[in-house]
Design a protein that fits this description.
Pfam families: ABC_tran (PF00005). By secondary structure, the protein is an alpha/beta fold. Helices cover 32% and strands 26% of the residues. It has 7 helices and 10 strands. The chain is globular. 39% of the residues are buried.
């Protein structure tokens, strides 16, 4: 599903964000990306959906050669990827239904398909009764569920989540992680950058550790620690 071959990323100020990354993530895997702040985790995540461009190497996501895509082809890549952020990034003037349906409208899905699919996804995340609510009428956990529904609505092959529980209390964080488990069980590949030690240590998924721009550990059923 995702392959990186000798991936380097250098920023214009000369900072090396990633140094020679080689990773393969198979379809249906659930992978945590951990490491200290500034280690390169966010860059690693952003390269997958071409929010950032690599300096050297190759990245393939669901059959797309990411770096060689022309600008007009990038939306095709992103239709295959659902991205979830720590700060939700909901549109404040749209209600729950509209926030989720917007993701289908931008790819010009038929109205009939949208009307059928959006309630299905909102039911999956437990928000079918909140379709008319605005984001500011929801709790943080509910807002994150809307963000997850929006990421899911186009049936992506991959979900990429950057600190999705970072703004949530522990109980709500576990509810969100149970939802991710359900999504993964249905066959969606999940790659999640996180600082949540308890979740990583408890859930025992594959763990990729990035320090100083390098992969220092890649372990199945791994724990959070990134200390040498």
């Amino acid at each position: 599903m995702i392959e990186m071959f000798n991936v380097w990323k250098t920023y214009p100020n000369g900072v090396y964000a990633l140094r020679g990354i080689n990773i393969k993530i198979d379809k249906g895997e659930f992978v945590y990306v951990v490491g200290p702040s500034g280690a390169g985790k966010s860059t690693f995540i952003k390269l997958m959906y071409r929010e950032e461009r690599l300096t050297k190497g190759k990245i393939f996501v669901n059959g797309f050669n990411v770096e060689r895509l022309k600008e007009r082809q990038i939306p095709q890549l992103r239709r295959n990827i659902g991205v979830i952020f720590q700060d939700y990034r909901l549109l404040p003037n749209l209600n729950v239904y509209e926030n989720v349906s917007f993701a289908m409208e931008v790819i010009e899905a038929p109205k009939k398909t949208i009307k059928k699919r959006v309630p299905e996804v909102l039911e999956l995340v437990g928000l079918k009764d909140k379709m008319a609510a605005l984001p500011n009428q929801l709790s943080g956990g509910e807002q994150q569920r809307v963000a997850i529904a929006r990421a899911l609505v186009n049936n992506p092959a991959v979900i990429i989540a950057d600190e999705p529980t970072g703004n949530l209390d522990p109980e709500t964080s576990w509810e969100i992680m149970e939802l991710f488990e359900k999504i993964n069980f249905r066959g969606t590949t999940i790659v999640m950058a996180t600082h949540n030690k308890e979740i990583v240590d408890t859930m025992k998924k594959r763990v990729i550790v990035i320090k100083d721009g390098k992969v220092t550990r890649d372990e199945y059923r791994g724990g959070y620690s990134y200390e040498d």
